[in-house]
UniProtKB/TrEMBL annotation:
<dbReference type="InterPro" id="IPR014718">
    <property type="entry name" value="GH-type_carb-bd"/>
</dbReference>
<dbReference type="InterPro" id="IPR008928">
    <property type="entry name" value="6-hairpin_glycosidase_sf"/>
</dbReference>
<dbReference type="InterPro" id="IPR050883">
    <property type="entry name" value="PNGase"/>
</dbReference>
<dbReference type="InterPro" id="IPR005887">
    <property type="entry name" value="GH92_a_mannosidase_put"/>
</dbReference>
<dbReference type="GO" id="GO:0000224">
    <property type="term" value="F:peptide-N4-(N-acetyl-beta-glucosaminyl)asparagine amidase activity"/>
</dbReference>
<dbReference type="GO" id="GO:0005975">
    <property type="term" value="P:carbohydrate metabolic process"/>
</dbReference>
<dbReference type="InterPro" id="IPR012939">
    <property type="entry name" value="Glyco_hydro_92"/>
</dbReference>
<keyword id="KW-0732">Signal</keyword>
<dbReference type="GO" id="GO:0005829">
    <property type="term" value="C:cytosol"/>
</dbReference>
<dbReference type="Pfam" id="PF07971">
    <property type="entry name" value="Glyco_hydro_92"/>
</dbReference>
<feature type="signal peptide">
    <location>
        <begin position="1"/>
        <end position="18"/>
    </location>
</feature>
<feature type="domain" description="Glycosyl hydrolase family 92 N-terminal">
    <location>
        <begin position="28"/>
        <end position="238"/>
    </location>
</feature>
<dbReference type="GO" id="GO:0030246">
    <property type="term" value="F:carbohydrate binding"/>
</dbReference>
<dbReference type="InterPro" id="IPR041371">
    <property type="entry name" value="GH92_N"/>
</dbReference>
<feature type="region of interest" description="Disordered">
    <location>
        <begin position="729"/>
        <end position="769"/>
    </location>
</feature>
<protein>
    <submittedName>
        <fullName>Putative alpha-1,2-mannosidase</fullName>
    </submittedName>
</protein>
<dbReference type="GO" id="GO:0006516">
    <property type="term" value="P:glycoprotein catabolic process"/>
</dbReference>
Amino acid sequence: MRSLMFSLVFSFALSAAAQDLKAPVDEVSPNIGGIGVLLSATKPFVQRPFGMARLYPITPAETNDRYLAQQVHGFPAGPATLMVSTAARSTSPASYGSTYDHDDEVATPYYYSARLETPGAFVEYTATDQAAIYRFTLPVGKQTHLVFSLEANAAIDTLSPSAVQGSERVEGAVTQAVPSAGETRQYFYAEFSHPLTNVETWQGTAMGNDSTRSGDHIGSVGDVDGSVRTIEVRVGVSYISTAQARRNLQREIPDWNFDKIRNESREVWNQALSRISVEGGTERQRTIFYTALYRSLLRMTDITEDGHYFSGYDHRVHPSEGHDFYTDDGLWDTFRSLHPLQLILDPKRQVDMVWSYVRMFEQSGWMPSFPSVAGEQAVMIGHHADQLILDTYAKGYRDFNAGLAFQGMRKNSTEATMLPWERGPLTELDKVYFDKGFLPALRFGETETSTSVNRSEKRQAVSVTLESSYDDWCVSEFAAALGKDADARYFGNLASNYRNLYDPRIGLMAPKDASGAWVEHFDPRRGGGQGGRDYTTEVNTWLATWGAQHDVAGLINLMGGRDAFNAKLDRVFTEPYGTSKFAFLGQFPDATGLVGMYAQGNEPSFHVPYLYIFSGQPWKTQRLVRLMMDLWYNDGPMGIPGDDDGGETSSWYVFSAMGFYPVTPGVPVYEIGSPIFSKTQITLANGKRFSIVANHVSAKNKYIQSATLNGAPLDRSWFAHSDLSQGGTLTLEMGDSPNTNWASAPGAAPSSMSREQVLLGSSSVSSGK
């Protein structure tokens, strides 16, 4: 018995030691979020951080919840789909698909493998920045094919039995802002470790021996010699040319060494994730945390190739001139916490992202808000490059052309339409915003007559007014920093426009028609039709009301002071739906992760729990952020509360788990929440370290009793970016009951437009004005 007991204890000790030695990359579970709570699911991407080569199982399009798919059609080879199959030759890519089981799958950020049940094969792959390598273990006694397929406006060229190349047009961008005609294509070049035989190509339903094909629904299929048990495929990708795709492959994967590339990619990810180290917490919390951090490092995409990049904004190839070119962003989401997190971890990369936006403005004439590799997309609302640029500048990172950036910001704010899902010049509705201080809504029962409005997306007048006010505040602050006093005053006045839609009768924002009259019969819970789009963007005004985060003090004043503000904010988390939950979610499908009217699954909510810090009740923030993390994030396929939107929903968790959050990008401070780890250490790009130490933290001990910053007492629930960037330690004493005195004084509130004390960071690099 003693021997058995010793063996059990020793085994437990080894297990604990192994857990302690577990690397951050080994904590990541890319299948988290593979089932969407209501809308989009995630994919288990294998790619380098911000890399061009992005690999994942391609499942049937009709299976929105990828993790539930029982069949895989293939894997990305740039724009092509690559698959190994024993099925009869066909011109239908789906016929080459295979069933697969997640129990036979390994998914990591750097490596993926799965058993392909139908052919009896085994697939593995890993990636570099601009290339990928696949390894297929083939079945015995079956004729196996290697298949490449492309969908639309594509080309394929069989160069030899051991190489193929091709391209496909990238769709999805608006063209009205592009000054020259052209198209964006993604190219690939692939080599095989063993030559193929009997290679045929197809287009539509016609199969033949043509070595090249172009058009829609094209592909190639070739046999693998029956004596070959393992075949590898190396693929280079490019947005410049097939020749550049080949150069990218030769530079990054010059030989057939799968394991070497896999190990290098693992180390790249481990170094990136190790920038934040955590102690304490549960294994589940560490898995969620590092998976969220992994998802926060996938976008934007660096498309710089050998010092050059193709721009979808003028359809030309440009030299990068020392600043890599990034695209693929959704600023309506990502300005909130994704970009601020990336700025902390790698400010030079963030500066290059700002440079990219400035170059897009130079090349197209407009500052984009939702850039893709093919150009600007007409998606969502707002001109939130303003927040990205101001936040970067305010935190002291200024190695970009600030004067040109301001030109683009100013042009968007004065000449570009604010209408949802539209791009182009001002409309008659935009002019009402400048004349009367709000975007007008339709009267009750009125039919849309403006040809400028996107009929499916409607006007979203309340949300557009609030978010444009925030945009204008950013332009005003940037103008002031650049010494443009007249512009600072002009846009500063526009920044107060959100106040024009505050209805004191309901204590919330509400729509006005073009005459300035309140829209009759307005319901702040269920008004606005599907998605609230008549008045709001994906939420109702119970949530949209809090979208003026540039002036929380102004909101407090509008609502009659801190007590009234807190009472209304309390109701956000308890307000009933006014109908069944089924009907409410049917109207607001983006409002997942509900706690009352609050929706953790949708981005306009993310800063709302932190607003108590501005109104003297930070302990409510501490309770609520813990509730949201515990309730709506987990380590399984349904582990993300809503659309991840390129990592934005994940980045909220990373910040909140560390214990702080950027309520107002553009103001260089962070509001303090409630960390879940006993110690979090951020290794900064300058080599310094910033730590958050939470003494006695636990599931119950979520309330801050007192705090010190670098040993000095801290009686406010925020700290400056300069405190973080210079390195140091924030120490929090945690307890199981709120300390209602800590950080509750009016003077402890963070900065707001109505109580201006913005702390622009000191310049760490040249201003570039």
